[in-house]
Amino acid sequence: MAAEPALLTGRLGVVNAGVDLFADALTAQGVAVTRVDWRPPAGGDAEVSALLAHLWREEADAANREALGRLLAAQPVLVDVRPAIDVIPGMTRDTILHAGPPITWERMSGPVRGAMIGALLYERRASTAEAAERLAASGTMTLDPCHHHAAVGPMAGIITASMPVLIVENRAHGNRAYSTINEGLGRVLRYGAYAEDVIERLRWIEATLGHAVGAALRASGGIDLRALIAQALQMGDECHNRNRAASALLIKALAPHLAALDLPAAERARIFAFAGGNEHFFLNVGMAACKAATDAAHGVPHSTMVTTMARNGTDFGIRLSGLGDRWFTGPSETPVGLYFSGFSADDANPDVGDSSITETAGIGGFAMAAAPAIVQFVGGAPADALRATRLMYEITLGESDVYRLPTLDFRGTPTGIDVRLVMQTGVLPQITTGIAHRRAGIGQIGAGVVKPPMACFEAALRALAATRP
Amino acid sequence: MAAEPALLTGRLGVVNAGVDLFADALTAQGVAVTRVDWRPPAGGDAEVSALLAHLWREEADAANREALGRLLAAQPVLVDVRPAIDVIPGMTRDTILHAGPPITWERMSGPVRGAMIGALLYERRASTAEAAERLAASGTMTLDPCHHHAAVGPMAGIITASMPVLIVENRAHGNRAYSTINEGLGRVLRYGAYAEDVIERLRWIEATLGHAVGAALRASGGIDLRALIAQALQMGDECHNRNRAASALLIKALAPHLAALDLPAAERARIFAFAGGNEHFFLNVGMAACKAATDAAHGVPHSTMVTTMARNGTDFGIRLSGLGDRWFTGPSETPVGLYFSGFSADDANPDVGDSSITETAGIGGFAMAAAPAIVQFVGGAPADALRATRLMYEITLGESDVYRLPTLDFRGTPTGIDVRLVMQTGVLPQITTGIAHRRAGIGQIGAGVVKPPMACFEAALRALAATRP
Fold it and tell me: How far apart, in Å, are the Cα atoms of B23 and each of B14, B20, B29, B363?
């Protein structure tokens, strides 16, 4: 061919993949070398590499196409607010739902215990914190992950029977997902606070806000969350740690219906002041949208796609679409980020909350490129936000055609974590998150980024391999 | 010095400024050349260069520091809505205010005539379009620029006595600025439409919306527009052609007070639906904020800073801080951009409106880097938005310390156009704008970017030079 003479006579360029030794030797001889950052799969672990080799097969690829297709096709619509006891599958008066994988009271961290205590005070199952703690530890209550009940909760993620919950309907798949109404910032239950003002706020949410938002949603015919999230990503939100635009858009969409409610003028004003005063008013809504999408993608046999990432403040757990209800866990790490004045990493609880459902669905930390301003709150420079998102394409199966990133020329967000790609590349999912104080009753002390332990993914990979005949 | 031997013995690098001939010759001899894009001042015009040379003097620099300081220090607060006749200085029942520099009926373009006709129908000064046109052309009405009355209006910019106007108070300087309430998109007065629905909407704005927003603002104690615009710039708006975030933030801020008003439920709902349905609800508010800031910077003797850029659909006019009420005009150009289906540049009216007050104050087209998503509406790629903002630093006196751009590592927006820098560099201000149909009664047909004619700046420069003894 014509190329051969050119190859033999032309000036040679060298591309060096991996070990720098060869490149260094050539550079010393004046030869231009393009260096490629390459490492062997699975960090060179021969056993894991062998397991991986067996999992790159059409059966898994076809299953992943199905799972990813369902994830990307989700049409989450916020339709109503109702008491948890009336709508959450399997909910009872004796149930306390919490964030993350299953955990016993004994192994539970401070803020999750604090939030459970607060929930029992709120439900009037105990009249003092001590009595509530005894009840929670007694074994008479059912402590269960939100994720086992089509629900998600931020931070401690506590949901009990009387709490009004947002209902998100996935109109593409027909399933529903649930989450509480966000309580605002400062001293709140989800960060483990249970003082009188925390409980009073929950009672007002139950008595007034939940009914109002539910009525407004029913009057509106539902709010298209896919369109709203797509807009918010063009407005500087990544919809996990930054929800400023999404919250404002949600209030704007609810406003005509909320304003028309037959309530005293002061209550109408309080509802708008409460919603408008909380830049994370949208957080729980977005989480339920992501849960509705990932639940639809769950349960595809042979799929290696991650459909859950969640933390209970002690363990980080993941689930795969193709491995049913099995959790694969590892120790929850402490986020790296910025602390509020007076606090440091010594005060931080290990990573906690179901909010990493956002990253599981392809937004949150995976969409950091949408939110260059977030680096002011989690540390770093705007270029880091772009870099973080670009890296996530390495471990995902596809890209959203709806959620697009202006700073990356409107490329779709990286979506659908493949456990094989995580193990092969050694690249872990990046999660943007709030940081809770490790003791009950204090609250948020910072915000940052965190990664799951590699152990979750390795355990999931081994389980996948074990399912082969 | 030690540097000399290195200079003599080291390898020489060459920097070539301007004409490529020298660089080409060196490159041909294998010498590495760094090329600098340089052109002689004023495009090589010796007379203008000589005028310029006299204007680079401490007297002007000191005046510009004062003018820029006032511009950057502005604290615009939206405080009230009142009928134009009650608050706009010099307003009478026989006054029609319009956008841009002064113009007679004879020279007026289609959409501005259309909007004047509509305003006279709205004011019940005529019962048919023909009668309104006769009245407007008769010479009995006073046709005056908004800018002469501390006011600004988008597109045709028509303000008449009965229209409720937003009042923005500049708390740093004590002055006030005014603008109408934005009517929404589609067939609206500001694009020259005057059909029955247009007039009916204006009557509802007068009878209901204006009173409601005014009452809400008085109850709120005022809305800090500096903080709101700073937030919106972090949320993908440049606050001229994209106001999605700012509009949502404004609604959020007004909502508790609007919701508490003693109005029928259906009217409360209509107010929120109207405001929420208009992504440019904030536009006129932001324009009044910019007018309050630039008016404060106006009137500093010897200052070469531009304090007005405005278009009447026929002429583009600028005013300088140091040259009082004199306008320097040139023919208004047609924006370059994207057209709605069925329209083309042949249908476009020349650039029109006072909305270029945003660029004059350092946002709008000067802040395009804040709004990469806007390129979808005005043509181009996100990188073009960054490039456009970077270029504006070449012709501005300073940078905002409040309005910051995430994609440029939080650099402040380029602020305070210096007519000397424009003439010296040949770089014209970039304006993002809507495009009106050239015939009355049709409305918006696209959006794009536009520049002022260089003639305005040259005329201003000559006038500055003429003020020297």
Answer: 8, 5, 10, 38
Claim to verify: residue B372 and residue B231 sit in the same structural domain: no
Name the domain boundary from A240, A258, A287. A287
Contact B266 A259 (CB under 8 A): no
CA dist B74 and B76 (Å) reads 6
Residue B45, burial from CB neighbour count under 10 angstroms (0-12, 13-18, 19+):
middle
Residue span of the structural domain in which A7 resides: 3-37
Overall pTM surpassing 0.90 (yes/no): yes
Reading the block at residue B127, the tokens are: 């019962």
Contact flag B273-A266 (C-beta cutoff 8 Å): no
A440-457: per-residue pLDDT in tens? 878 889 889 999 999 999
| Cβ pair A456, A316 in contact under 8 A | yes
- Residue B249 to residues A310, B243, B253: CA-CA distances in angstroms? 32, 10, 6
Q: Are B239 and B345 in a shared domain? A: no
A265 and A327 housed in the same domain: no
Statement to judge: residues B137 and B154 lie in one domain: yes
**A244 interaction partners in chain B (CB closer than 8 Å):** 231, 235
CA distance A67 to A305: 7
CATH of the domain at B174: 3.90.1710.10
B20 inside domain: no
Q: What is the ipTM of this complex?
A: 0.90
- Find which of B235, B247, B251 to mutate to test the A interface (most A CBs within 10 Å of its CB): B235
Q: Considering only the beta carbons, identify the residue of B231, B236, B409 that sits closest to A382.
A: B409
Judge whether A43 lies within some domain.
Answer: no
- Answer yes or no: do B272 and A253 touch at CB < 8 A: no
Q: Is A144 found in the same domain as A61?
A: no
Interface test with B, best of A209, A235, A263, A404 (most B CBs within 10 A): A235
Q: Which residues of B touch A (CB under 8 A)?
A: 231, 234-237, 244-245, 248-249, 251-253, 255-262, 265-266, 268-273, 276, 372-373, 376, 381-383, 406-407, 409-410
Judge whether residue A12 has pLDDT over 70. Answer: no
Whether A248 sits inside 8 A of B253 (CB atoms) is no
Instruction: Tell me the per-residue pLDDT of A101-116, one tens digit each, with 9 for 90 and over.
Output: 999 999 999 999 999 9
Q: How many domains does chain B have?
A: 2
Is residue A168 one of the residues assigned to a domain? yes
The closest of A103, A210, A224, A239 to A170, measured between CA atoms, is A224
Confidence at residue B19, expressed as pLDDT on a 0 to 100 scale: 73
pLDDT tens track for B235-289: 999 999 999 999 999 999 999 999 999 999 999 999 999 999 999 999 999 999 9
